[in-house]
Specification:
This protein has a five-stranded parallel β-sheet, with helices on both faces. The radius of gyration is 16 Å and the shape is globular. The protein has one domain: P-loop containing nucleotide triphosphate hydrolases (Rossmann fold, 3-Layer(aba) Sandwich), CATH 3.40.50. It is built from eight helices and five strands; from the N terminus they run E-H-E-H-H-E-H-H-E-H-H-E-H. The two termini are 13 Å apart.
C-alpha cells in the first residue's frame, strides 16, 4: 500500500451508483489537497477522449452491445492510465478520479459479465488505487437525487440495474484499500468523513 508523501503520488478513487455525489466530493477532495500545497489532478471516467465520448453519448442515445461497451471502457481506461494517471503519479501528484474500473465491474457486471474477470482484465494495466471511497445510498435516495438535479434516469440508471451495481460496489468493502462512506447525510458531513479518514491514515 502506498503512503502519502511529498515525493510520492497518491491515487484516490470515488465510486458509487449515480446520485451519491461522487463528482462533488471529488472536487471537494481536490480543494482539500490543494490547500495542503499538493499538486492535484482531478479526472473522471469515462474520459472526454474519443472512446469516452462514445460511452457518454450512449447513456442517452441507447447502450451499446455488451461486448462493445466493455471494450470501449477498456480502451478509454488504457489511454487514461498511460496518458494521465501513471505520469501524474510518477511526478508525485495527487490523482483523484470520479469513477474507475470498479464502475466497470459494477455496471457491466449488472449486464451479466463476471465482475472479477473484469477486474482481472483491468488490473493487467490499470494501477490499484491507494484509497477507494465507495459512496453508498439506498436506491430510492439515488433516484430521487437524480430527479432533483433535473435529470431523468438514463440507460445506466434503471432501478434493477442500480441495485445490482450497488451490490457489486458493496462487495468490495473488505478490500484493505476500500472504505464505504454513507452518502445519506449532508455534503459537509460526508466530506468530513473522507478527510478525517485520510488524516488518520497518515499515521
Amino acid at each position: 500500500m502506498a503512503t502519502e508523501s511529498e515525493s510520492q503520488g497518491l491515487f484516490i478513487v470515488l465510486e458509487g451508483i449515480d446520485g451519491t455525489g461522487k463528482s462533488s466530493h471529488a472536487k471537494r477532495l481536490a480543494s482539500y489537497f490543494s490547500s495542503l500545497g499538493r499538486e492535484v489532478v482531478l479526472s473522471r471516467e469515462p474520459t472526454d477522449g474519443p472512446w469516452g465520448k462514445k460511452l457518454r453519448d450512449s447513456a442517452s442515445t441507447g447502450r451499446l452491445e455488451p461486448e462493445e461497451e466493455l471494450e470501449y471502457f477498456l480502451r478509454d481506461r488504457r489511454e487514461h492510465v498511460e496518458q494521465l494517471i501513471k505520469p501524474a503519479l510518477a511526478e508525485g501528484k495527487v490523482v483523484i478520479l470520479d469513477r474507475y474500473y470498479f464502475s466497470t465491474m459494477a455496471y457491466q457486471g449488472a449486464r451479466g459479465f463476471d465482475p472479477q474477470e473484469i477486474r482481472r482484465r483491468n488490473e493487467e494495466f490499470a494501477p490499484v488505487p491507494d484509497w477507494l471511497f465507495i459512496l453508498d445510498v439506498e436506491i430510492d435516495t439515488a433516484l430521487q437525487r437524480i430527479g432533483h438535479r433535473g435529470d431523468t434516469a438514463n440507460h445506466f440508471e434503471r432501478r434493477d440495474s442500480l441495485q445490482r451495481c450497488r451490490e457489486i460496489f458493496l462487495s468490495l468493502r473488505d478490500e484493505p484499500f476500500a472504505r464505504v462512506i454513507s452518502a445519506e447525510g449532508s455534503m459537509d458531513e460526508i466530506s468530513h468523513q473522507i478527510v478525517d479518514f485520510l488524516e488518520e491514515s497518515k499515521g
